[in-house]
Write a structure and sequence with these properties.
Layout lengths: L10 H13 L14 H24 L9 H9 L12 E9 L8 E3 L2 E8 L2 E7 L3 E3 L6 E11 L1 E8 L9 E3 L4 E11 L3 E6 L12 E6 L5 E5 L13 E8 L9 E5 L3 E5 L2 E5 L7 E7 L7 H14 L6 H11 L3 E8 L10 E8 L7 H11 L8 E4 L3 E13 L7 H16 L10 E2 L1 H9 L5 E14 L6 E7 L13 E3 L2 E3 L7 E6 L6 E10 L2 E13 L4 E12 L5 E5 L6 E2 L4 E5 L6 E6 L1 H4 L23
Parallel strand pairs: 10-11, 19-20, 21-33, 21-34
Antiparallel strand pairs: 1-6, 1-17, 2-5, 2-15, 3-4, 3-14, 4-6, 7-13, 8-12, 9-10, 9-13, 11-12, 15-16, 18-19, 21-23, 22-32, 23-31, 24-30, 25-31, 26-30, 27-28, 28-29, 29-30
Helix pairs in contact: 1-2, 3-4, 4-5
Length: about 625
């Protein structure tokens, strides 16, 4: 008999394979395996083969970064290509306060490393610390000002080791998980005090370079590594290694404000350090705590590690930016980057970057400047980075779903399940990223697959942008959709919510009319209502470019809007496959702006098999609406 390899991962299939293997022997050709005790032996063999096959499969899977599932293995494989997964990140706030030391004759005032303040947020209270001392000089009035200092959420801890060269491979492992590695400070105390800094790159590294490396090990803890005396200085034998670091709660502290001072202040008098116990002003919050984040998840490591490796830690191509920015700034949900040469007209020598944060709609100016500063270490001279805010393109649906009531006992439940399916699709990678798209055929199939009782659905889409007006001042406006508009020659392809402009009584709306029946360009008009009659108050208020998907408004003084700080402007897309181009970000609006209607299919249910009274829903949007 030839030898079989039992690598199947299904128990029943393994039993069948073993029985077929035995039947190949003439002694077992007509043997009744199920009716004898031999069945127990076969079950044992199948179980053993199943366990071995499973373990072999898992062991091989853990050898590749794409298929590994255990964090330690994924981190180890990423380390092989030079990628260091992000640690947890402390929420960082900026505060200011003063200390009155006029009665103490203090030359300097030092805020000691450690706890500084207690901040509050809806989730509770959090401790904020600093990783190193901050020293300021009082002014002539004896006021020491600590202005715009950064404080990090978490407790500052300390771990000490003794450097012992007699050990073959000494390991300096920090015992705590949830360490923000950016707050690690390392010093050795021997014949003198030496401070080590994190390794950044291999350039200018020699035997005197006081550098340390950080690598994640099991249980999300970290190990500190030093040079060997050739590449990087080796710590002095017998010296004491002191490591301080902040253990953080990550994103939980984001938004913390209302800080109360809890720090430790000292001043020097002669050769003595004395504690300051009074004269501290209330703490002023310059910037609420933000940018706290959890440790990098496994999926992110798998995605970024090969991409950062391919970029070789340099920012040259657009793909390099999309890989490096999430590595440098963890509070990123999605990044897009494109060269200025792709624009019309081209802008050579520029890279345009748009970032969607995990929290909030746009990143702050402070964060943009911080990312630009970090990118300078990786970029090519002569290339200028410009960060532009993302623009949300809302897609609304008007869907009429026909169903057979004999298969759908609960209409309300069906509607809830359809809404849930659409909300899930709205969060999917198809839409929820730069370069995403609403795939019309997929949208229809998602609705149809919710229940076998659904017989059909007719779904129409519209695009919407929210325009934020500059109140009480003349201003031009440009509203881009990035998708071609459908252009009906009778106009009213563009519809808006109500707003008010200077010198005009009542609500004003905007719409369009194609120029001489053109489907490429049209004119924007402002109008009001007199009763039910449209009255145009400005017949040349701007231009609409149907082919580019763009609306331009000439200078107008908007004094107020019916909706809070926005004018909603909707258009009908030429194609129901809607794309997110450049800095656009699609949001499939599943709120009250979209409409989901359930309609009983009288023909399918048998109520009207002839179809004489059944009218199917229209496949066309109503273009004759005047307003949104």
């Amino acid at each position: 008999m030839s030898f079989n390899q039992f690598t199947n991962l299904d128990f029943q299939d393994l039993r069948v394979q073993i029985k077929e293997y035995l039947r190949a022997n003439s002694n077992f050709t007509d043997f009744d395996f199920e009716g004898s005790n031999f069945s127990v032996l076969i079950d044992t063999l199948a179980y053993n083969s199943y366990v071995n096959a499973y373990n072999t499969n898992m062991a091989v899977n853990e050898s590749f970064i794409d298929s590994a599932t255990v964090r330690e293995n994924v981190v180890s494989l990423a380390r092989n290509i030079g990628y260091v997964p992000r640690s947890i990140k402390s929420a960082v706030a900026r505060i200011s306060f003063t200390v009155d030391v006029s009665a103490l004759a203090a030359r300097t005032v030092t805020l000691k490393a450690g706890v500084v303040a207690l901040g509050s947020v809806q989730n509770g209270n959090f401790i904020f610390s600093i990783p190193e001392d901050i020293t300021v000089t009082p002014n002539s009035s004896g006021i020491a000002s600590f202005t715009n200092i950064e404080i990090f959420e978490g407790n500052l801890l300390r771990k000490s080791f003794t450097i012992d060269d007699s050990q073959l491979a000494p390991k300096y492992i920090l015992p705590n998980p949830n360490i923000d590695t950016s707050t690690i400070r390392v010093e050795t105390v021997g014949s003198g005090i030496e401070n080590f800094i994190p390794y950044a790159n291999i350039f200018d590294v020699d035997s005197t370079s006081r550098l340390f490396l950080i690598q994640e090990i099991e249980d999300e803890k970290y190990q500190i590594l030093f040079g060997d005396g050739i590449l990087g200085k080796k710590p002095e034998n017998g010296s004491t290694l002191n490591i301080t670091y902040i253990v953080s709660n990550g994103s939980a502290a984001n938004g913390s404000t209302n800080f109360n001072f809890s720090g430790h202040l000292q001043f020097t008098q002669g050769a003595t350090q004395k504690v300051i116990t009074s004269g501290v002003s209330p703490v002023t919050t310059v910037q609420a705590a933000a940018n706290g984040d959890e440790i990098e998840p496994i999926d992110s490591i798998k995605y970024l590690a090969p991409r950062v490796y391919s970029s070789q830690y340099r920012a040259v191509t657009a793909n390099d930016y999309t890989a490096l920015i999430p590595f440098l700034y963890p509070n990123v949900e999605s990044v897009t980057a494109y060269g200025g040469e792709e624009l019309d007209p081209p802008q050579y020598g520029k890279v345009f970057v748009t970032v969607k944060p995990k929290n909030g709609e746009v990143i702050s100016t402070v964060t943009k400047d911080a990312i630009k500063k970090d990118l300078k270490k990786y970029t090519v001279a002569g290339i200028k980075q410009e960060f532009i805010d993302l623009h949300y393109l809302y897609v609304e649906y008007d869907s009429t779903v026909s169903y057979d009531p004999s298969f759908v006992p609960n209409k309300t439940d069906l509607q809830s399940r359809i809404t849930l399916a659409l909300e899930t699709y709205a969060r999917s990678a198809d839409i929820n990223s730069f370069g995403g798209r609403v795939k019309y055929s997929k949208l229809l199939s998602i609705i149809d697959r919710v229940d076998t009782g659904i017989t059909s659905n007719i779904t129409n889409l519209i695009m919407r942008r929210n325009m934020t007006p500059l109140y009480n001042q003349l201003a031009n406006y440009e509203i881009c959709y990035g998708n071609r508009f459908h252009a009906d020659t009778e106009g009213f392809n563009v519809r808006s919510s109500a707003f008010q402009i200077e010198g005009v009584d009542g609500d004003v709306y905007l719409t369009d009319f194609p120029d001489n029946g053109s489907t490429e360009m049209g004119t924007v008009k402002f109008f009001t209502f007199e009763g039910n009659t449209v009255k145009y108050i400005n017949t040349n208020a701007g231009k609409v470019y149907y082919d580019k998907g763009e609306i331009i408004l000439y200078p107008v003084n908007i004094v107020s809007t019916n909706l809070l700080n926005r004018i909603e402007i909707e258009v009908v897309p030429e194609s129901n496959d809607i794309l997110a181009k450049e800095n656009m970000y699609i949001v499939l609006d599943t709120t009250g702006n979209s409409v989901l209607t359930l309609k009983e299919d009288l023909m399918a249910s048998g109520s009207n098999r002839s179809g004489t009274i059944y009218i199917p829903p229209s496949s066309f949007s109503s273009y004759r609406k005047f307003t949104r």
